[in-house]
Amino acid sequence: MSDSRPVVAPPTAPQTPALAIPPEQLADHLSAQQNEVLASLIAGGTIKDAAQASYVHRSTVHRWITTDPLFRAAYNAWQHEARESAKAKLLNLAQGALDAVTQAVMSGNAQLGYKLLKDLGLLTKMKAGLTDPELLRQQIQLEQANLLSTLAPEPTPEP
C-alpha cells in the first residue's frame, strides 16, 4: 500500500545577501531607461517629467522606486547626496547670516536685538536660587524623593 501524501521539499537554507554595491556603481546595474529617469530626477524633473522623457509610464517610475532594489538604492543614494549637499551649503551660509544679524544689532536694530534676547531666554525672570547649603540639601532630598515616588510602581490592591 503506497502513501498518497504529497511530498514536501525540505526547507532551503536562507540565501546569503548579495554584496553591497557602492553607490557610485549603482547606475551600472540599471537599465538605460532607469538611468534616463534617474538623470531627469537628479536634474530637478518631476516623476511625471522623468517618465515622459524616458518614454515610460509614471506608474513604472513609482514601481521602480518602491519595488526595484537597485533603482531604489540609486534613488536613495541621490537623495542622500542632495540632502548632504544642501546641509553643507546651509552651513556655509550660517556664518554670513550670523554676521548679518550681528551687523544689524550693532547698527541699532532694537527690534531684532530684543527678539534675539527673547529667543535666547535672556529676558525671562530668573528665580533666585538658595544660597544656604543646608536648605539646598533639604530641597535636593525632596526633589529626589518626589522623583523616586513618580518612578516607583503603584502597589496593586490585594483581592
Give me the secondary-structure category: mainly alpha
Name of the CATH class of the domain at 23-97: Mainly Alpha
Looking at the chains present, what oligomeric state does this protein adopt?
A: single chain
End-to-end separation in angstroms reads 62 Å
How would you describe this structure to a colleague?
The chain is mostly helical. It has a domain of 75 residues: Arc Repressor Mutant, subunit A. Helices cover 60% and strands 0% of the residues. The protein is flat. About 3% of the residues have low confidence.
In short:
The chain is mainly alpha-helical. The chain has helices at residues 32-42, 47-53, 58-67, 69-106, 110-119, 133-151. The chain is flat.
Task: Break the fold down into its secondary structure elements and pairings.
Blueprint lengths: L31 H11 L4 H7 L4 H10 L1 H38 L3 H10 L13 H19 L8
Helix pairs in contact: 1-2, 2-3, 3-4
Features:
single chain; mainly alpha; Arc Repressor Mutant, subunit A; 60% helix
